Structure formats: C-alpha cells, structure tokens
Amino acid sequence: MSIEQRLKDLGIALPPPRPPAFGYVPVVVENGLAWVSGQLPWDGDGLMAKGRLGDGVDVETGRAVARCCLLNGLSVLREALGSLDRVKRVVKVVGFVSSAPGFYEQPAVVDGASRAIAEIFGDAGKHARSAVGVAALPRDVPVEIEFVTSVL
C-alpha cells in the first residue's frame, strides 16, 4: 500500500514543512538514505509544549509531543523526496528528551514517535532507536526527534 494513501486512510494530515531557522538543511539524501534533521514540536505557528519531563511535563504529553515531532519530520521528508512513497523503510529514530534529574522514562516518551511510525509504515517502520535524556533542548521543548530512512 502507498504510504501517501495510508496517511489519508488514517486521517493524518501532515503539517506544512517548516524551513530551518538556523544553518542546516532539514533533510539530506545520500547513498540511498534520507537523514532527517532534529524536529521540534511545531504546531501551527507555535510550539505544542515547553518544559522538561519529570518537571511539569508528564509522559503522556511527552508521547504526544514526540508524535508531533515525527509528523513534522515526515513533512520535510515528503518535501525533499516529492512523496513518502519513496521511503523503503525507517532505519533509525533518535529521540532527545529534556529530562529533570531523576526522570528515567525516556523510552516511554519516544514511543510516541515509534508508535506513529508503526501505524504509518507497518513492517517497513520497524526501526533501531535511541532515547536519550538531556538537560535542555532548543526553545525549551520537551522532545526533539530525528530519523533516518532508506529510500527508493
């Protein structure tokens, strides 16, 4: 099944691609891989959430933020590739979770992105993953997601 059709069937509308605010490109395609730069949880003109997990942001909100980051990443990937139907499989996901001292549930938070990938890509969405706790993220967001896909 087409990934573009799958998005429609699931009722998932990707947000418009957001240009980078700093000196990088959102996607690099090289040697059959597409490297998607870290994505923040932009929701329209603002951020979906701010703060740190374990200090005002709960795991459920963190999962929703991770999903939002992933959808923003798919948006810039679609722009770079012309269609998500060129994605052969998702290879790797890295989730950065802004974490208060004593917060150790980073994998549960990054599951928000992993679950969205599984929902959209099925077996082609089975990926390697890292969930990393950090002291702070840009713009005080709770989660940043980057990923790599193989492409046709």
TrEMBL record:
CDD domains, per database record: YjgF_YER057c_UK114_like_1
Cross-referenced Gene3D superfamilies: RutC-like
Domain Endoribonuclease L-PSP/chorismate mutase-like per the UniProt entry, residue ranges: 6-133
Taxonomy, superkingdom: Bacteria
Coiled coil: none
Pfam families membership: YjgF_endoribonc (PF14588)
Matches recorded under InterPro entries: Endoribo_LPSP/chorism_mut-like, RutC-like_sf
Protein name listed in UniProt: RidA family protein
Lineage of source species: Bacteria, Pseudomonadati, Pseudomonadota, Alphaproteobacteria, Acetobacterales
